[in-house]
């Protein structure tokens, strides 16, 4: 069949809901298309077809070809032809609807019922996000921002935010820095990728010491970058950084010195000095994860380790605990020799952190609203922790939180051999929480204590009491 006839037939056929294709001559193709359209109900009974002369002219074929096709279908009973009425689809019984065997949906396990109470660590109180202050800060920032702020983003971050962070971190966390040493990122995980990922700022390769308990997600990022992690032991004084001395393999160490995650203790002052001395004498690098350094309840927060040596410590922070993980903003305070490499890893333009969010956070800090929000949340989380301690003292006095009064979670030390059974009992009570073993480094050799990591920031205020009652019911007896 000539291609020109097929193309024209498809155009005409679309008006008749025909599919003109397949093998055979023109007459056979037209008969088959009309028959299929009637059979499948696409040409309804009583539909008038074009006069065969018109259709033949449109298709560019002989009139006899179309006339013969019509005659054949009339003879078969598909069409009727009457003088003065033209050729129509026969008024016959409508074809039965096709019975389609439904495809069997793939078998999926039933989704577990959502927990009644979420006591997982790491999430701030979402209901306390300072919406009004954030909106006001955004309006002020947008009104005062220079036009160039809305061009291609600076990979180092908006200078307004870097200035605000330099001032805030200096007075609130004892960080020694200036705006030129700060690189804005989208959070701690992004910071790790900038430091260790492909082209990651000329940073170290090979082996990094980490605390024997920490987030597996962070260890996975490092493993993907080809960095091997080895665990440092932990005790009541924090990470055993003396294990770094004499090690030829270790080029750096990742620590949570203000509030060890998740066990909860600060790094002892003598060990803070020890790890800084190690970095100076070995040329090593300390990565300081200050994930919740503002939230200390029994005393003033411990200052950042970076304040002891700004050339051997990379200070890493974010607003994921103080504001919300939904505000994708974090920062690296870098030794001078790492700045160019990290900026090269980010690229020529900012691809992660929103300029509007950067300007808004800068205004929030400069206006004092950020400090007020942190103070308010410190009081709220302290009250939440006190409620947890009181509930344990009343219903499970043999169990108490370990570590210092700080942060958004507490670790409950359990009797030996009871962690798994207690976690199952908590699930039966409708609680979502995590066992301490989930955070253990797979190569750690120190004895494994049993414990639960209980987040107290997430449950809504009206449900927190019920969550604590359910938790106490799940705990093992004395």
List keywords for this structure.
478 residues; alpha/beta; seven-stranded mixed β-sheet; four-stranded antiparallel β-sheet; 14 helices; elongated; disordered N terminus
Describe the structure.
38% of the residues lie in helices and 14% in strands. The chain is elongated. It has helices at 3-16, 26-39, 52-59, 63-76, 131-144, 159-173, 188-196, 216-224, 269-282, 339-346, 355-366, 369-395, 419-428, 461-474, and strands spanning 79-82, 86-89, 117-118, 182-185, 206-211, 227-232, 234-235, 238-239, 250-255, 285-289, 313-318, 330-333, 401-402, 409-413, 431-432, 434-435, 451-455. The strands form 5 sheets. It has a 7-stranded mixed beta sheet with strand order 4-12-11-10-9-5-6, with helices on both faces. It is α/β, with parallel strands linked by helices. The model is unreliable at 1-14 (pLDDT under 50). It is built from 14 helices and 17 strands. A hairpin with a 6-residue loop joins β13 and β14 (409-413).
Q: Uncertain regions: pLDDT < 50 for 5+ in a row?
A: 1-14
Helix amount: 25-40%
How much β-strand is present in the residues? 5-15%
Total strands: 17
State the secondary-structure class.
alpha/beta
Shape: elongated
CA radius of gyration: 35 Å
What order do the strands of the largest sheet run in, or round the barrel if closed?
4-12-11-10-9-5-6
Q: What is the average per-residue confidence, as pLDDT, rounded to a whole number? A: 88
Count of helical stretches: 14
Distance between the termini: 90 Å
Q: Biggest sheet: strands, sense, closure?
A: 7 strands, mixed
